[in-house]
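Structure tokens please, single chain.
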Amino acid sequence: MNFRIYRFDPGEDLEPWYQEYELPVEPEMRILDCLNLIKWNLDGSLSYRMSCAHGVCGSCSMKINGRCGLACQKLVKDYEGQAVLVEPLPNFKVLRDLIVDMNQFFSLVESIRPYLIPRSAAPEKERLQSQSDRKKIDEVIRCILCASCTAACPVTEENPEYLGPATIVQAFRRIFDTRDGEGDSRLKQMDHRDAVWPCKNYFECTRVCPKEIPVTKSINIIKQEIQKTAGEDKT
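Here you go.
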């Protein structure tokens, strides 16, 4: 299989370029396995992130043949008969090769206070939650902050100030968690020109999510909750 990989070292290169490699592969090999073979056997200078290699940490998120995703979840057989183009996540500053700067991304996540803020004193044991209440956040709780959704989002490309799908999913998780006591203030934070409202339902975030989270649906649910709350305030 032929691989065409984005290369860029800001200390040496004036512009990004692409390098081609040819590897003997097996259908069940992951794209991450192929990158490892290139780095370990052909070119030790190739730079990319990886950690768990099992779709849990989100480190190996990148753009493969035009679609963002995790290199540890994409198999060679998915690209049979094709050359594989590997690029860094779009909408992020490239630090080197396939490694992008995630600082701004995590700063946006931090801005929505991604932790429970209960109003009541800590109980002797755990804070209880019914199964029906937990079900409201079952899907979004799978988010691993790989940034695939934010990188694929056309709105992020158009508006650098947009919070982005991943950040809004993290907000959803707290807004609808019955153990949290800051739902109103969190909802108010989402009612902003750079929060939920720029979303135009492109559904790219949902298509690329490696955890199959209904990201677009989650954003729309927050919009509906904001409108519902506004209507209740008027009455």
